[in-house]
Amino acid sequence: xxxxxxxxxxxxxxxxxxxxxxxxxxxxxxxxxxxxxxxxxxxxxxxxxxxxxxxxxxxxxxxxxxxxxxxxxxxxxxxxxxxxxxxxxxxxxxxxxxxxxxxxxxxxxxxxxxxxxxxxxxxxxxxxxxxxxxxxxxxxxxxxxxxxxxxxxxxxxxxxxxxxxxxxxxxxxxxxxxxxxxxxxxxxxxxxxxxxxxxxxxxxxxxx
Length: 208
Hints:
The protein has one domain: Glutaredoxin, CATH 3.40.30. It has nine helices and four strands. Helix 3 runs antiparallel to helix 4. The two termini are 29 Å apart.
């Protein structure tokens, strides 16, 4: 990560359809703006069916319908999960992939296969299989899961508390929060206001 660039964080969880929609566009921002992007794992705590009010059930169903509409327009197909997942193993897998320069590939496949109901994000063995599929060591991941990875994961949850994170995807730019995939245009507007657009800087340089 370049120390001189403003850092844009994105808190994310592999069981969130809106975090799925935001994942690739988030990394693409670094190609258009002078920023360093930092992916942050965050475990959503979701109530199961029967624990929510009827109005919350309506909201969940609508949210998946809306996410499917957005995903279909981009060729991303989303099936709702059949249970509530504790995604800690998969999130620690993201930290492992990040250390090996393969976070973007890992995240894209983790999201795709999870929302096709092909990936058990709560099972270390399933995460290890995905790690191996992407050319990394399953044994190293399993050691990381119970050692360094667990410590890093716990530290990111503490940082999330300090950042007042309440949902995902949540973007933080110089202390300012932008919550949700649909806030990304607003986020880009702020990046332009801060003069961080690479295209704008290139045009100014040409004029000089």
